[in-house]
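Lab notebook page, bench 4
Experiment: in silico fold of construct C2
Operator: M.H.
Input chain length: 494 residues
Purpose: comparison with the prior construct
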Amino acid sequence: MELKTKNIGKTFSGVNVLRNVDFDLKPGEVHALVGENGAGKSTFVKILSGVYTPTEGNIYLDEKNVEITSPIVAQRNGVSLIHQEPQSFSHLSVAENIFMGHMDGNNLSRVKWQEINSRSNEILESIGLKIDPKIIMDGLSIADQQMIEIAGALSKNSKVLIMDEPTSPLTPNEVGKLFEIVNKLKSNGMAIIFISHRLEEIRQISDRVTIFRDGDLITTKKINEVTNEQIIKFMIGRNIDDTEVKENEFLKTEDYILNVKNLSLSKKFDDISFNLKKGEILGFAGLVGAGRTEVAKSIFGAEKFDDGEIIYNGKSIINNSPNEAINQGFAYVPEDRKQMGIFGPVAVEDNVTSAVPKDISNNLGLINSKIVSSITNDYIKKFNIILTSGRQLIEELSGGNQQKCIISKWLLSKPKVLILDEPTRGVDVGVKSEMYEIINQLAEQGTAIILISSELPEILSLSHRIIVMREGKITKILENKEATQENIMSYAIN
């Protein structure tokens, strides 16, 4: 199926977020969409999938003008959206998830379960997935859940598949399996829109790339006719300088603000020992499941360790809760932004100031709304957070702008030790560059930083030292000068 749009635009509350988008997608093509957070690409695919209706413009499927007014209408027209986070029903079977919304029969008693299970199995096998369609979804990996959503799209005879940052939660091996399926679908004539911030993935899987900036479609190029540097320039309208590890005066001392000794937690990590200076960025590298996040949570009081000792400013401490850790001078930007980082249906300014209740209240404990607004506006300007106002719900912001809000919240608490767990996951190169600058500035001001990241270039460009973990243990501590992607990976897998 061929998809085209003509002059597609969208306005929210008088703000024009998408303008005059002319776009085409061919059968058997993987067409990537890139752009900074808030550039308009997510709004565009939500229009195509029926989540939003366009303010203006037209959508054409095989040259026929169609009105897509809801996701159900989109699916009936052969257009399906695969979300970044799987939208599955965990308590139902694989087959029920695949055929959800279009099972034969008027009620469950009349569903032809044998036929449903058989057809599910056929679809799963067609994309190379060996999963029993009768098993319950709960417990399946994110990658498998994503594949089952793809199977669900195939069960609806979808001809256009939109994949919104599908690789964000996946390991490298899982990304490889996903790309195998994408290539199979492509060879069978499926038209695929692929959204990602990872340019190397886009180069690997895409035929063409379309770049959005500030609500405008800037250009469409064949992927083999444009460099990554050119894509970035189209995205942000400027060049991004490579980040280099920055030294500071604090690193010249031998004084450590944090000493972790023989920290252990059953089945998660064992005998973890390291130290951290003021002004130091200490990177944690390793494969997914290596235990990095669990160590961070234990330091922050979100998980209780079984054995070992944490020494902070020369004194042994036990953070029994995040509140205790915050009071001690710790802050934690979590990996799971939506579940642990923000209060979704709450205003931006209430999120930003949530960690400093004493700073925004009077002697009676009543919140001063003027102080809340003033503090929030300072950080909105400082970090260039794109939003309509401080009263806008944080869940309405792009992922990158949500991340800036989370970091703003913790900086308000003036932490001495800042733990950043995958701080740039799901954000574009422009926001990444801004965050790197913030991280380096904090280190220069004396903040001790633990940086957990699965992106080795990020670890290498920011960290003064790098701890490599594998299966819950530290396998190597590297000085930045001796660290490479190759030797980090060798210690992570061997």
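Observations: The radius of gyration is 24 Å. Residues 81 and 450 are 36 Å apart (CA to CA).
Next step: discuss at group meeting.
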